[in-house]
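Run: sequence + alpha-L-arabinofuranose -> complex structure.
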Amino acid sequence: MSLPEHTARFTLDPDFTVGPVDPRLFGSFVEHLGRCVYTGVYEPGHPAADAEGLRTDVLDLVRELGVTAVRYPGGNFVSGYRWEDGVGPVADRPRRLDPAWRTTESNRFGLSEFMGFLRKIGPQAEPMMAVNLGTRGITEAMELVEYANHPGGTALSGLRVAHGDKEPFGIRLWCLGNEMDGTWQTGQKTAEEYGRLAAQTARALRQIDPGLELVACGSSARDLPTFAAWEATVLAETYEVVDHVSLHAYYEEVDGDRDSFLASAVHMEAFIEEVVATCDHVAARLKSGKRLTLSFDEWNVWYQRRPNPHPFEDWQEAPRLLEDVYTVTDAVVFGSLLITLLRHADRIAVACLAQLVNVIAPIMTEPGGPAWRQTTFYPFAQAARHGRGTVLDVRPVSPAYRTEKYGEVPLLHATAVRAEDGSVTVFAVNRDRERSLPLEVALRGCGLTRVVGHSALADADPEACNTLAEPERVVPHEVAGAELSDGVLKAVLEPLSWNVVRLA
Ligand code: AHR
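>> structure
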């Protein structure tokens, strides 16, 4: 064991909680982008494809990953999308240019196919649909909700029935556009323009289906100059007619500054707290007792500055785009982003890992070939499985290290979730690249007596990753030595590691 001062500590007490975890915190995202849909989830003719063309090997991995809400169909894609193109007989569907990603969209996969995909994932999968508020508006959004959710007897609901979907889809969760503040967004709007359109759309959609849960677009990134002013303006218009405001954040290592990259969660945490503060400020101004929750509907590690290693021509169909290969280092950062989401479970209602397959994704596929798990698959799957219940208030005291971007940052990043049966899972990241970090957790009033297991994702090679050639190079391993006695858990966190310690 190292010197006592190089030890991280915290106390768990079931009386001190953050709040319950909304299962939708483990959501994901399927966009018509690159190979997420085509040759990702959907590949008719693949040896593992079912009668609907869905890859059953991918479906198995999606179930294992444990995703809940799945956002669809974009992303930037939705801001130029006509939902009608993706319904009805496949042979009649038009091929269209997708201006967002400069590709060609065949529309062989659309709303009905997406809902079929979700049904096959299982009952935990819930759709989160985005409407196009870039090139379209209130009418088209209303028409989509009528098509999707109205039982029948009208032109649009009847069309759905005629298309073979007798039962309404019952989609509750809707995004009012995507990243409408972004200069790259087709039909970008000012905060005033968007706020008014989003509020009017929200009211119109609720007139059709009062039970909807609606997400207003927040900022596409915390570092944009319009951040926070955008939220304040948009929410001043929409506060009483929406349920959540969105956040998007992607992280990457810049100029070899790995120490700052490992502390990315500091940025994410500040982002969440600033959006919460902005929401509550608007509530105060409006004298509203309502509290908005957050939809962190795009988050991940994404190497946006790297050139695409797969050259492609404009207007190709389903080219290889954004196919980042994730290392052990990426998985540790990713794990700490998950910890951040859990640590704010009191205000985060929905979070979507962007994206699900092939495109900055935990699951990769080869056309006609196998599917495999990236390093980031494991933290997500473990958190989605064991992070159910109530988040306990964890206030670590930890040795720290210096970072260029964020100053002094604790080496330990941690949270803990208490399940209904009283068992507790500790999720912890050791940001130290060189040294192990001893961890001591005082368990007060938890009634816990044993360590069920300590799993870690770490590797002697921080660049290790899973590839087509070596799909299982990186997998979590069991760590010996964690012990619980006299109400204290002691465990050692390997250098640069993601850890899951389960207590019962
Ligand atoms: O997830 C990839 C892209 O990132 C999405 O299309 C967009 O919303 C964001 O900028």
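>> summary
The chain has two domains: 8-15+393-503, 22-386. The mean pLDDT is 97.
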